[in-house]
Write a structure and sequence with these properties.
- It is a single chain.
- This protein has 193 residues and is mostly helical.
- It has a domain at 1-60: Multidrug-efflux Transporter Regulator, Chain: A, Domain 2.
- Helix content is 59%, strand content 5%.
- It contains eight helices and three strands.
- The chain has helices at 9-16, 20-28, 46-60, 65-73, 83-89, 112-123, 128-154, 165-190, and strands at 6-7, 36-38, 41-45.
- It has a three-stranded antiparallel sheet.
- The longest helix is centred in the C-terminal third of the chain and has 27 residues, at 128-154.
- Residues 6-74 form the HTH merR-type domain.
């Protein structure tokens, strides 16, 4: 490698753990800005390497390249705080997301109906990452609500044992109530009269 933050295309590819062909393909797709020209040579910087590592992490997490390209064209951050990274990681410790001490989070998009809805949103023109980020936020806020309700039930003056039949019935009723209220509130916000 030349200067500390200067790479040839071969050095960049090696440092990013990919082929020079991939680097060129990502440049062609607009995922990587052009290199800095130094005479006849092209030099890549640390920012290029960071971007390639972000793309590789997203691809390794199973996100389709098309989704990454679309997000980049919209100017979305592909880095650790960006929506695709949050999607790829599920729930991390970024601002607004629970840390390891927050307890178990929801299994996001475990229901096949969620994928059908996301596909319909995509057909209606909503960017895939927007629908997925919305799903993550809804799931996170729902998990927060679930933890709050669990605490509320645990503090109940009647001392409901969570494992008792009554405790299970109380929790099932709270789930039903939460679904109904959430559905109504979201409908009123998104579909005003």
């Amino acid at each position: 490698m030349g200067a500390e933050d200067s790479y040839s295309i071969d050095e960049l590819a090696r440092a990013a753990g990919m082929t020079t062909r991939n680097v060129r393909a990502y440049r062609t797709k607009g995922l990587l800005p052009p290199p800095v020209r130094s005479g006849r040579a092209s030099q890549y910087r640390t920012a290029h390497l960071d971007r390639l590592r972000d793309i590789r992490e997203l691809r390794d997490a199973g996100l389709p390249l098309k989704m990454i390209v679309e997000a980049a064209r919209r100017g979305e951050d592909l880095g650790p705080g960006g929506p695709l990274r949050l999607l790829a990681a599920g729930f991390g410790d970024q601002d607004g997301w629970p840390d390891d001490d927050a307890g178990p989070g929801p299994t996001v998009l475990d229901d096949p109906r969620a994928y059908e809805i996301l596909q319909r949103l995509r057909e209606l023109g909503l960017a895939p990452s927007v629908g997925l980020v919305a799903s993550l936020r809804i799931a996170q806020r729902s998990a927060d609500l679930g933890r709050e309700l669990d605490t509320l039930v645990a503090q109940d003056a009647g001392g409901v044992d969570p494992s008792s039949e009554r405790g299970v019935q109380v929790r099932e009723s709270l789930v039903q109530l939460s679904v109904l209220i959430t559905d109504e509130v979201v409908r009123q916000m998104l579909l005003p009269d």
